[in-house]
Amino acid sequence: MELLRETGSCPGVENYSMHLGRRKPGSPPWTLLDYFNDDYMIFIDESHITIPQINGMYKGDQSRKETLVEHGFRLPSAKDNRPLSFEEFEDRMPQTIFVSATPGNYEEKKQEDFVEQIIRPTGLLDPEIIIEPTKNQIDNLLDRIQSNIEKNQRTLVTTLTKKMSEELSEYLRELGIKVHYLHSEIDTIERIEILRDLRLGTYDGF
After folding, report:
1. How far apart are the first and last CA of the chain?
2. Cα(86)–Cα(84) distance, rounded to whole angstroms?
3. Final residue of a domain: which of 75, 95, 110?
């Protein structure tokens, strides 16, 4: 109190902002939101993280202040120097847009309209996926490989086992198709050479 009288401030004076601001105990603190007009709009980015953080700020602050008050490091009124509770924050949310790639339950309950925005940073679209029956799958594979060869394209074939990749490669080579198998038992240097040859057109596929 002596420092306040002499200098007008003291370390930690913000802890007793309720008294200095002449607020009633338990009343919401003033925040930047109080400076906005009544008809403003809030954009909450990464809302799946931000919303829980707003809720956690108040609870974490009160837990810390409770310990300080209990051990005599703060007066009880210090607990009113706090962030808004989540309910108080909600009262100050007029028009709100939640932005998130993975919105949580809160956003889904509160939303009145939902807009999906698909953004692909690479600009590449997902390839078309066609599911074919297992019957005649080798003949179908040969047709697709030949079609890709005519377009100067490469073909990637995945198999269930390493042995199957070796056997399929041998079968395709017997048909005159330039292929090579690739699996974990091939050492790093040879693997790099195979991938290089694939890019250069030495192989039609692997």
Report:
1. 81
2. 6
3. 110
* Structural domains in the chain (count): 2
Give the CATH number for residue 90. 3.40.50.300
Burial of 180 (0-12, 13-18, 19+ CB in 10 A): buried
Question: Which letter does DSSP use for residue 15 in this model?
Answer: G
* CA pair distance 136, 182, nearest whole angstrom: 24
pTM equals 0.52
pLDDT in tens, 60-108: 999 999 999 999 888 899 899 999 999 999 999 888 999 998 888 998 8
- Residue 141 sits at φ, ψ, to 5 deg, of -65, -45
Looking at the fold, whether 103 and 147 belong to one and the same domain comes out as: no
